[in-house]
């Protein structure tokens, strides 16, 4: 934990505050209509950033990694509680040349540099796969709140790219973003338990690092919501502090995506702001 | 249970069949474009079937009935597991003059008569209320499969009206229908447990009376899906055998609707086709 004044203080006791974000959303200059839209809404979408062949190749990597004997027991491979099917593969840009090249093909890094106005590095990467019928909802949250509290990320000078490997439709639990919510920082209540990531990675109903229902309602009334649908091969890039969630999925349509977080080299991690120890590098690289 | 050949046999052992429905979907003549659409897709939608004032009056009935001392302990009032908040009120057309008049205002009964080609009676009615953040998903099923198996409804000569008391949007778990699926009858596997309705009314993940994931996938590939959104005051009428589900809701927007099932007087209930005893009248009136 760190001493001193923290404008993004969180995991507080008592009544949480909703604070204005003092840092910009787009740090780069000159701006473009696409970046102005990003600054306004906290996200942007591009179609066809990777080819169908690349999509197929990335999906095939799940099958390959799933049975790779060298990765048996590796904590970066999150498997089904029952069975050996893979749900998330962290460090995917390290573990898979195919996915690393797909990220390169997507143009996400150049876009991240434009938005963050500096060189960037990968803070976290993973490939997520959920078969049909099994996608639980994921509750409203700001990623930055967690990265600040648990990883020591100083400011919200980071962006996430979600590259779709399956189509995202309104019915199979797409990303939902409150557009504009990145301009506010919502304090969360409660002390971070030790080794909290071991629980938070597997639950879909986190208790820590999420705003209260009253606050979500207030934010909803201010900003409304956009459902981010799109074909396989499309990309959504979103601000690290935008309030977002994803719905459940009871359809047969699976959901898979590559998720890459780019952090500014001006924003390297320090000690956690509201947790006892740093998290493992596969969750938060230290640049 | 009943002996003899049953074209809608269900709750079977072993491999379930998908059978053609031999009964029509629209029994009335002459037809209209609206009814032809219903026959094709298994549902129709009308906007503004009840006024805003009626919507408000119906919502107020929840608060009234919730605290009515005469209804304390009444099994028709399904409350929260914790607390006393009301989730569903069965027999709502009997318990509330306001809601009975709203149903009358909606024109649902006349429409049901047109579709079913006969006089009709109310098989079941209820008012459903789910606050924001708390609506679980409800898995794919055909209502008729349950009514046939557990209530002794001979044929799918019944329709359901869902009258929206809140807006239904893609993001707050609307009704999802597989259009055209009413033309097939999907057998379900497994014996009906005694008093199964006591469990099936409170769970969102029923084990009995639902098709397998393989069958849902096959149906999905044949029919696709429509998400039924609409403003408060709109009505969806759907066939008793159409395959449908509803998604979960993690938004602050509550969901409330009046649900009324009309059955043809030519289709009165007999003994259950696949259960030991009949269910209570508030779930299945016997005409």
TrEMBL record, chains A, B:
The name this protein goes by in its record: Ectoine hydroxylase
Domain of life per record: Bacteria
GO molecular function: 2-oxoglutarate-dependent dioxygenase activity; iron ion binding
Species of provenance: Rhodococcus xishaensis
Pfam families registered for this protein in UniProt: PhyH (PF05721)
InterPro entries attached to this UniProt entry: Phytyl_CoA_dOase-like
């Amino acid at each position: 934990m760190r001493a001193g004044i923290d404008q993004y203080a969180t995991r507080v006791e008592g009544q949480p505050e909703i604070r204005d974000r003092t840092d910009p959303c787009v740090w780069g200059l000159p701006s473009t209509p696409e970046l102005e839209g990003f600054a306004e809404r906290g996200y942007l979408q591009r179609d066809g950033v990777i080819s169908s062949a690349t999509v197929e190749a990335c999906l095939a990597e799940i099958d390959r990694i799933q049975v790779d004997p060298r990765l048996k027991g590796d904590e970066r491979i999150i498997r089904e509680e029952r069975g050996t099917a893979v749900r998330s593969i962290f460090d995917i840009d390290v573990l898979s040349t195919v996915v690393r090249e797909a990220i390169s093909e997507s143009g996400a890094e150049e876009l991240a540099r434009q938005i963050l106005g500096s060189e960037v590095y990968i803070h976290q990467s993973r490939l997520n796969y959920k078969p049909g019928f099994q996608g639980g909802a994921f509750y409203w949250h700001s990623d930055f709140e967690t990265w600040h509290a648990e990883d020591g990320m100083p400011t919200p000078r980071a962006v996430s790219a979600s590259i779709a490997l399956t189509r995202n439709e309104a019915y199979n639990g797409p990303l939902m973003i409150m557009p504009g919510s990145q301009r506010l920082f919502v304090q969360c209540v409660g002390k971070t338990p030790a080794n909290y990531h071991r629980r938070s990675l597997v639950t879909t109903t986190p208790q820590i690092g999420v705003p209260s229902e009253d606050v979500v309602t207030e934010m909803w009334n201010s900003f409304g919501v956009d459902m981010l649908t799109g074909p396989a091969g499309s990309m959504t890039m979103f601000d690290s502090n935008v309030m977002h969630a994803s719905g459940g999925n009871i359809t047969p349509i699976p959901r898979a995506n590559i998720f890459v977080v780019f952090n500014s080299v001006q924003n390297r991690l320090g000690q956690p702001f509201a947790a006892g120890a740093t998290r493992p590098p596969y969750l938060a690289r230290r640049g």
